[in-house]
Amino acid sequence: MATAPKVAKPAAGAVSRPAFDVARVREDFPILKEQVYGKPLVYLDNAATTQKPRAVIEAEEHFYLAQCSNVHRGVHYLSEEATRAYEDVRAKVQRFLNAREAREIIFVRGTTEAINLVANTYGRKNLQAGDEILITAMEHHSNIVPWQILCEEKGAALRVAPIDDTGELVREEFEKLLNPRTRLVAVAHVSNVLGTINPVEQIIQSAHRWNVPVLLDGAQAAPHLEVDVRALDCDFYALSGHKLYGPTGIGVLYGKAALLAALPPYQSGGDMISSVSFAQTVYNVIPYKFEAGTPNIAGTIGLGAAIDYVNALGLDILGAYEQELLRYATDALSRLPGLRLIGTAKEKAAVLSFVLDGLHPHDVGTVLDQEGIAVRTGHHCAQPLMDRFGVPATTRASLAFYNTREEIDALVKGIQKVKEILG
Amino acid sequence: MSDLRALYQEVILDHSKHPHNFRAIADASRRAQGYNPLCGDKVTLYVKLEGDRIADVSFQGTGCAISTASASILTQVLKGKTRDEAAALFERFHDLVTGQAERNGKGPDLGKLAVFSGVSEFPVRVKCATLVWHTLRSALAGNEEVVTTE
């Protein structure tokens, strides 16, 4: 299938959102023109990290070229400029997630740090021996290990809700695991391996019936779905900038203001205090209480540019295109003999994990790499999930809106070559 | 493409599909486990020593073509070797797959192990080829801990 022909930009005065044109969008991502081993790069590892549009790269560059200064400190022009740019992004993220207030947005390094923050503050404060934390069998290690450490420290128990063979959460079992001892539910909004979109509204409603707050790991969801934390009524939401076409090293923790205000600080140092004496320190208000030290200012500004970028294209339009591409890819891969898709939930993001009869993913990945095709092979930081499906590893193609049908065709050809070489 | 053929030689593919000595040794004198967390490869190596000599060696586990073939061929070439001979062979094998042998201008006479020369063009796959050898070293040293490639 050919992609839509390149069309001229709409005339001035036309609607601000032209129909989605993948060829034009690809022009915004300089790296997509790169070659690998003399072949065009086919980048299908977007669940690991996404590529960055020029606007993001230029926003970071502009900060260092023209705005570089520390935030919340200086009275001088540049510091005010940097502070304004940094805080503008907080408001941007607030709107992006439809949070009630900007102070509910905390900047962190990424989803992992966001979850660790909640474990170290909310968890430390509220968990006691005999309490429970409830997760699911499809969690990334970053939504397992912080809870394990916390449970071990507190003598609490980690409960795991099972999934079925398609990779969907078994709702009845999840419901049964909620009980008066449950202190927190922590669930992936979208699975990084299976692509499963969890029924998070229902999960949150169920948990709230027990007065249990819910943390959503949104690392794989925020880039593909419109997230409305108020409509969801989730208590914490974590996401990573680099999976949202933004820079690495910047992420977001959303938390309801009342919850956050009641928590102890996470890390301590500068910026998170309002007054310090050797006798006593008074902590700053939220969100600053959780942002000790000089933050990733350039990364934050880059994240703001990434949000502007996806907003201009429209996450709904990008999501619809990705769904169409997912259908195309699912059809194409399903036709290949000996290929088994791992993760066939009805509601899925554009992630295709698969195994090939008699072939190890690591060998598959090496052959695809030689064709210029970047996929992830391995356990995808979800070893318990691999055990659940009885495989040591999978090959994973994860799509973004800049991917094309031609690239899916290249993947199919690549897999045929794998069989030819290793068969 | 030619690099891929050099990596996945017929001998390697044969061993990966039909590994030799793929079994446990009930009365093994040494046993060790190896694990490559990057790709999930797991290998258990069994060694039966008679004095200083490796009387029998076998393995079990799951892995990619390179690691499975490497384990299979290891069991073939080590039977009857002394511990010192095995250690020396690991050194030379390591030099081969890391490209060190080629840089030194030595063409090591490694017999069956020479089929792994193509690995040196794929640095991320070196650990696949050496996992079982690290596991062997651990087994001979009498270590009970799982060897990882990280």
Quickly describe the structure:
The complex is a heterodimer of chains A (423) and B (150). With 423 residues, chain A is an alpha/beta fold. Helices cover 39% and strands 16% of the residues of chain A.
What distinguishing features does this structure have?
heterodimer, A: 423 residues, alpha/beta, Aspartate Aminotransferase, domain 2, Aspartate Aminotransferase, domain 1, seven-stranded mixed sheet, four-stranded antiparallel sheet, disordered N terminus, B: 150 residues, alpha+beta, Sufe protein. Chain: A
Topology:
The complex is a heterodimer of chains A (423) and B (150).
Chain A: H1 22-26, E1 35-36, E2 39-40, E3 42-43, H2 54-67, H3 77-97, E4 105-108, H4 111-126, E5 132-136, H5 145-154, E6 157-161, H6 171-177, E7 182-188, H7 200-209, E8 214-217, H8 229-232, E9 236-240, E10 251-255, H9 257-261, E11 273-276, E12 281-283, H10 297-313, H11 315-334, E13 339-342, E14 351-356, H12 361-370, E15 373-374, E16 376-378, H13 383-389, E17 394-398, H14 405-422
Parallel strand pairs in A: 3-15, 5-6, 5-7, 7-8, 8-9
Antiparallel strand pairs in A: 1-2, 4-10, 9-10, 11-12, 13-14, 14-17, 16-17
Helix pairs in contact in A: 2-10, 3-10, 4-5, 11-14, 12-14
Chain B: H1 2-7, H2 10-17, E1 30-36, E2 41-50, E3 53-62, H3 65-78, H4 83-97, H5 100-103, H6 126-141, E4 147-148
Parallel strand pairs in B: 1-4
Antiparallel strand pairs in B: 1-2, 2-3
